[in-house]
Target: Pre-mRNA-splicing factor SLU7
Amino acid sequence: MSAPSIPLSSILKSKHEEVEGDEPKKKTREEWKKAKELEEARKAGTVPAAVDEEGKDINPHIPQYISTAPWYFGSGGPTLKHQRPQPEKQSSFNHLNEHYARGQKGSVATRYRKGACENCGGLGHKKKDCVERPRKVGAKFNARNIAADDVLLPTLKLDFDGKRDRWNGFNPADYAAVVEEHQKVEEYKRQLKAKNESESEEQKEEKRRKKLREALIRAKMEEDEAANMMKMDERMRKYNSMYNAKAPTEEEIEAYQLRRQREDDPMAAFLGK
Model:
């Protein structure tokens, strides 16, 4: 027995009715008029404001394009829930105090393991990602100096502030040693200052005399060094050809000028011509 044939117009009509069932129905003129009067009365305060599903009053002065929920939101009455952040669309981030652990090292093996790095022998990365110096003979073949395994760090999803936090992972307790060292230095300075103030005049005079003696000793050493340099100059005088050079006398200057008068015959002055 063949199945009964359904007209195409009936199928299209049923589909149209299904679609119209999901969308809101159009309001008549009277319904629009009543809604407008109710809105004006709520704004005037003669009628109580609309209440949402949580029992909170909705401000009647909110514009219609804000207070009216879209038809696909599926609200059964007046609500402002569509204007609030939707939980399913909110991104969750890690806490600001969560950070990556730094300076940690994994366990160190004594033999090569399958799947480890062929260069250093550590688990967690491959040979092409190894940051150690390429070895002539890798750890896979000699099993020497196997590096520590990589520490598996958590995958943190940080927000804008978390990515730019300069003090992320800083522990103030680690700085206590530096503070303690400076406190010791300051305490030593205070003790030294108190000790200097408590010294008597005789001790201060003794210190001044000691400084004066040291200055005299340094001056004496400088004088001795200068005298030694002078003696060295005297010993080296005979090797200096310019040491005994003297300025020419008037007779020598006159004789030189006479020799230069007859440049055509250089031997004239020598021969007495």
